[in-house]
Design brief:
- By secondary structure, the chain is mainly α.
- Helix content is 67%, strand content 0%.
Amino acid sequence: ISTQLLDELEKEINMYSQKLKEWYSWHFPELFSIISDNLIYAKVISRIETREKLIVTDLSDILPECVIEKIIEVSEISLGITIHEDDLACILSLCSQIITFNNFKKQLQIYLKNRMYTIAPNLTAITGEKVGARLIFHSGTLLNLAKSYSSKIQILGAEKALFRSIKSKTNSPKYGIIYNINCISKADKKIKGKISRMLAGKIAISARTDALGDSTYGGSI
């Protein structure tokens, strides 16, 4: 449930942030090109409100001095229009929602990490808490995951693609959920399949150790 909630939160944050950028860009379009981080963007807007207040607003706890100077410089020649009070009130409310969602997201990530290291420390050490939780959720239980062959774990989450490949007699998928592990997603395309196969074997061993062994909190093989 926590992984699904995290995914939903990320979608909501991204959607809200996109609407915020579109809305506030009518007033200060240049700000979007300087600040790419959604959370920092919302924090800056909630602090300055309008670009005219930049000079008298302290942003040193949010942005580096060089970035602040650049924003002030750009604000003086901005092509944006004057913002209406009603629009500003809605924009500030939207900023507050984005900041609140991000704070809850951080709390949820900490909870998931602690929970996963308690339930499956070895699996989490290899996959990370988010991917590990998705593997367990997709399997039903940690015990079900532990009973799975490594070849099944490798394509877990890619069942539809597997059935399509069987039906069309094309190459079967080389990875499913585990693609989100950095060592696979960032690897060269030629060796992604090999890394997936090796990692799936390690995941199978770690899941069996966590499900059937005597490992304690943080214990690792």
